[in-house]
Amino acid sequence: MLHGLRGHCNSPIAGYCVTDPDGQLNLRGMVFSRDGSRFVHAHDWGELANDPAVLGARVCAELLRQGARTIIEGIPH
């Protein structure tokens, strides 16, 4: 997710992934403006392959669809 968002240590990005009791991955991602006034959120679950890279790419794509790039770059809305 972080790689797809082109994030780094100072990027306002949060990710939280857990493994459910049945072994399925569960990933939440958020991107915030520096002052916290804007944010986007995405949440998805692993599928049959339960591939973390695929899951991260799906959450990343949803965050980008919602405007994460403009938030990360600090572009006013």
TrEMBL record:
<dbReference type="InterPro" id="IPR022418">
    <property type="entry name" value="Porphobilinogen_deaminase_C"/>
</dbReference>
<dbReference type="InterPro" id="IPR036803">
    <property type="entry name" value="Porphobilinogen_deaminase_C_sf"/>
</dbReference>
<feature type="domain" description="Porphobilinogen deaminase C-terminal">
    <location>
        <begin position="1"/>
        <end position="64"/>
    </location>
</feature>
<dbReference type="Pfam" id="PF03900">
    <property type="entry name" value="Porphobil_deamC"/>
</dbReference>
<protein>
    <recommendedName>
        <fullName>Porphobilinogen deaminase C-terminal domain-containing protein</fullName>
    </recommendedName>
</protein>
